[in-house]
Amino acid sequence: MTDIDAMDRKILSLLEENSRRSFVDIANVVSLSEPAVRRRIKNLVDRGAISRFTVETDVDKGASAITLLSINPSIPTPEISNKLLTMTGVNVFF
Questions:
Q1: Would you say the pTM of this structure is higher than 0.70?
Q2: Considering only the top CATH level, what class is 6-46?
Q3: Residues 37 and 27: beta-carbon distance below 8 Å
Q4: pLDDT tens across 50-69, in order?
Q5: Most buried among 5, 27, 73, 92, using CB within 10 Å?
Q6: How many other C-beta atoms can be found within 10 angstroms of the C-beta atom of residue 81?
């Protein structure tokens, strides 16, 4: 990763606050054109300064996940079940 200037840092800061922020909105905040912001973000991705855009979910607001676990067969199933039920965020298992 090379040559991250003040404008790139400002764009990164805005994306850290909200990675879904539009190019137009970012352009308005940093006083650049939308194509310039789009190009800068593409360059940041290409150079590795941005490795991914993520979504953080809140389980209390309806987010859920299905997870597949590989279990050691030598451990009794009821023991595993009891431990799973004590874990934060585990609501049900089959």
A1: no
A2: mainly alpha
A3: yes
A4: 988 777 666 667 767 777 77
A5: 27
A6: 10
